Amino acid sequence: MSDTQTMSVTPLDAPAGAKVTGVDLSQPLNHENGEGILDALAEHGVLVFPDQNLTPEQQVEFSRLFGEVEINHNAARFGIEGSPEIYIISNVTKDGKPIGSSRAGEEWHSDMCYAKRPARATMLYAVEVPTLHGMTLGDTAFANAAAAWDALPDEMRDRIRDLRAVFDFTKRKRPYVPDAETIAKYPPVDHPMVRRHPRTGRLGLYVMKVDSTSVVGMEQEDARRLIDALSDHIIKPRFVYRHQWTPRDLVVWDNCTVQHKAIVDYDHPQRRLMWRTTIRGDVPV
User: Fold this and answer.
1) DSSP state, 51?
2) In the sheet where 240-243 sits, what is the strand order?
3) Are 181 and 187 in contact (CB under 8 A)?
4) What is 8-280's CATH topology?
5) How buried is residue 242: exposed, middle or buried, by Cβ count under 10 Å (0-12/13-18/19+)?
6) Beta-bridge partner residues of 19
7) Could you give the CA distance from residue 107 to residue 105 in angstroms, rounded to a whole number?
8) Domain ranges (residues) in the chain
9) How many CA atoms lie within 13 A of 228 on its CB side?
10) How far apart, in whole angstroms, are the C-alpha atoms of residue 278 and residue 280?
11) Catalytic choice (191, 195, 197, 260)
12) Strands 46-49 and 18-21: what pairing?
C-alpha cells in the first residue's frame, strides 16, 4: 500500500478487540503497518477491518503476514479452486449440495487446539451476512482468555499454573464423521492450561469444555470439574465481545488470547458466506 496512507487502531468498547482503518488489505502492506497489525493483534486479541474488497488470493496473501497458512482438513470438500487455503463457512447450497460447513464453531473453542501446533490466528471475510427484516444475524462471540486468567484468585492460579490439559480430536461432537486419515493426523495431545503469548508473554487460560477431555495426572472426575469451572469462567459476560458482521468485514483473531463461538441464529433463506484462513502457530508454552 502507499506509505501516504495512515493506519489507525481504535480499541473497541469491549473486553477484547480493536477496529483498524486506513489500510487497504487488497494491496501489499508496508513494513510499519505490517508490524503495527501484528502488535495490535497481540494486544487486543481481535482486529476488525471494515469495508475490505478482497479476492480469495488477496486474503491468502494478507494471511501470510501472520505466518504459515494452513490448508484445513475440510478444504477438500469446502474449498475454493485456486486458493486451497480458503475454507468456506456457509449455509448456502448449490445443486442441492452444501458449498461450505454450515454449522461450524457452535461451541466455545480455540481453533486447532487438538493439534500439536494449534492455530496462531484465524480470519474470516464476510462475503454474505444473513439478515431478517433488516436485523443482522450470525454474530461471532469472542472471550478474552487472558483477561479471564488475570481475574482468577491467587489460589486458583497457583493450583493450575503448571497443569496440562489433554485435547482429543476424536471426542469432539461434529456434524460429520472425520475420515481415518484426518483422525490419524491428530492424535491426543496435551497443552498447558495456562499459556504464555509468544509475542507479549502475557498469560491466558487455554482450556475448553468441549475440547479439553482430561488433565494430566488428575482423576477424571476432578479434572472434569476443573475444566468445566474454568471454561465457564472464561465466557462470563465481562470477558466477551460479540461481533455483529457487516458485508466485507475482515476479522482476524489470536487463538492464544481469545476463544470464540459462532452464533447460529439463522437458517434458509438467510444466507451466510464466509471465507476462512488459518495460520499455523507454535507449540504452546
Assistant:
1) S
2) 240-243, 140-144, 258-262
3) no
4) Double-stranded beta-helix (3.60.130)
5) middle
6) 10, 48
7) 5
8) 8-280
9) 6
10) 7
11) 260
12) parallel
pTM score > 0.85 for this model? yes
* CA angle centred on 10, ends 9 and 12, rounded to 5°: 135
Q: Any catalytic annotation for residue 276?
A: yes
Residue among 120, 233, 272, 276 flagged as catalytic: 276
Q: How far is CA 14 from the centre of its chain?
A: 17
Complete DSSP assignment for 22-48: S--TTSPPPHHHHHHHHHHHHHHSEEE
CA distance 85 to 243: 24
The answer to whether residue 260 is catalytic is yes
Catalytic residue among 44, 109, 164, 191: 109
Q: What is the pLDDT of residues 241-270, one digit of tens each?
A: 999 999 999 999 999 999 999 999 998 899
C-alpha cell at 144: 478474552
- pLDDT, tens only, 146-177: 999 999 999 999 999 999 999 998 887 665 66
Q: In the prediction, which pLDDT does 174 show?
A: 63
Kindly give, in sequence order, each residue whose CB lies less than 8 Å from that of residue 189, ignoring residues fewer than 6 positions away: 114, 115, 116, 166, 167
Q: Residues 111, 190, 211, 254: which is the catalytic one?
A: 111
What pLDDT score does 105 carry?
Answer: 87
In this predicted model, what pLDDT tens digit does every residue of 138-152 receive, in sequence order? 999 999 999 999 999
The answer to whether residue 111 is catalytic is: yes
9 - beta bridge partners?
20
Rg over CA atoms, the chain:
19
Helix (H, G, I), strand (E, B) or coil at 170: helix
Amino acid at 108: W
